[in-house]
Amino acid sequence: MLKSVSQTALWRRAALSWVRGRELSPQRLWPLLREPGGLESLLGLAQTELSERLGSRERAVALLRSVDDTEADRWIREVERGGMRAVTSFDPDYPRLLLEIPDPPFVLFSAGNLERFHSPAVAIVGSRDASRYGRDVAARLSKELSSVGVTVVSGFARGVDESAHEAARDGPGGTIAVLGCGIDVDYPREHAGLKKELQRRNLMISEFLPGTEPRPGNFPVRNRIIAGLSAGVVVVEASRRSGSLITARLAGDFGRDVFAVPGSVFSPTSAGSHELLRDGAILCRSSQDVLAEIFPALHAPEPARPESPRVSLSLSSEAQELLAALRREASSAEELAREKDWPAATVLTALFELEEAGLATSDEQGRYGLRRS
Fold first, then answer.
1. I need a labelling partner for 163 at 20 to 30 A (CA). Which of 30, 125, 174, 371 fits?
2. Cα distance between residue 87 and residue 75, in whole Å
3. CATH of residue 275
4. CA 363, CA 369: separation in Å to the nearest integer?
5. What CA–CA distance (Å, rounded) separates 72 from 17?
6. Which residues contact 152 (CB under 8 A, 6 or more apart)?
7. Is the peptide bond prior to 188 cis by the omega test (within 30 degrees of 0)?
8. Is 304 a member of any domain?
9. pLDDT for 270-299, tens place per residue?
10. CA atoms of 212 and 226, how far apart (whole Å)
């Protein structure tokens, strides 16, 4: 498609001009860019014909002038002096998987390690008001996926997203945070420390111009990037009106696998996840469920075994009670909930603790028992 370095530079300038001018949207222009001849063919059309194709004279003028917009060159040099980088859809660093969606951003503003674009990726998303169970599950999935080289993509929000980024950031796969505001805008404010950490070894990106404040309408737009970057999307916890369900729907539209983590039937933050499962999402009980479906050559790490029996002293009282019950016989989570008269979420959180400590394991039938040395 590209014929020379100079042509690459011109097309990069054009993409920067489009995002500065805003007359041309990805939704409007990509169907024409994907026609035979692409941008070069469009630039060869007369203005009247191009106006018909684009639906207005203003759009045609913006496109024809974009390759000569030297102001875009000066503007991006100033932007990049601030520490961020612009990656256009014509650059070799642009993520190939994202180009497959109908309307990829013309430009991704980035800060951090662009190598994260070239690793296998899975999105982990969920509620901002996540329960402890949801945050723990997000952290476990993210840590295990990152440990085998899978990059975890999420939206840098509170709750599930935050847990996913924190757990994945130090692994080989690392993490990509997709923002609903400008890269240079501190949002959420309490994530300022996490933002600095991610920019060191991982990656933060946004299609929004520097200085763009977070607005409600930005986040559904942002979600298509999360889905587009990823081979699959895991919804950990989501209410019926959660933005995570938008990400899941988009992933399905893009032909990506959609997974959902089961939660308590009493928890409103699991209602959307359960509806996804009802509608055909893949059940996610562990990172192995994700890897087996998307990246079968990779394998989830074995849970760490306890260094000594004293590890149980750091367990919650609920986990210690379940440990005593498991010493008697293997049981399902439902059986344990009935026996203890506890909410399902309490049982699942305690079982998660025991698995993390290497004290319990589950079989294919979903029954939990003691892990044997």
1. 371
2. 14
3. 3.40.50.450
4. 8
5. 6
6. 121, 122, 123, 124, 142, 145, 146, 164, 165, 167, 168, 173, 174, 175, 176
7. yes
8. no
9. 999 999 999 999 999 999 999 999 998 887
10. 19
Q: What single string gives the DSSP state of each residue in 237-276?
A: S--TT-HHHHHHHHHHHTT-EEEE----TT-GGGHHHHHH
CATH code, 320: 1.10.10
Number of domains in the chain: 3
The amino acid occupying position 175 is T
pLDDT, average across residues 16-36: 95
pLDDT at position 301, please?
A: 66
pLDDT of 125 above 90: yes
Burial class (CB in 10 A: 0-12, 13-18, 19+), 186: exposed
Query: Does residue 247 lie in a domain region?
Result: yes
**SS3 category, 88:** strand
Look at residue 194 and give its three-state secondary structure: helix
- Averaged pLDDT score across all residues of the chain: 89
Band (333; pLDDT cuts 50, 70, 90): confident
Q: Do residues 216 and 135 share a domain?
A: yes
Cα-based distances in Å from 335 to 43, 200, 298, 348: 68, 46, 33, 12
Reported pTM? 0.81
- pLDDT value at residue 202: 97
Last residue of a domain, one of 112, 139, 172: 112
Burial 209-226 (b: 16+ CB within 10 A, else e): bbebebeeebbebbbbbb
- Secondary element (H or E) of residue 122: strand 121-125
Pairing of β 282-283 and β 331-332: unpaired
Q: Residue 275 is which amino acid?
A: E
Q: How confident is the model over 180-192, as a mean pLDDT?
A: 94
Which stretch of DSSP H or E encloses residue 109? Answer: strand 107-112
Amino acid at 44: G
3-state secondary structure of 41: helix
Given a cut of 90, whether residue 31 has pLDDT beyond it is yes
How far, in Å, CA of 171 to CA of 168, rounded?
6
Residue-by-residue DSSP string for 130-154: --HHHHHHHHHHHHHHHHTTPEEEE
Residue type, 211: G
Domain residues for 317?
A: 309-370
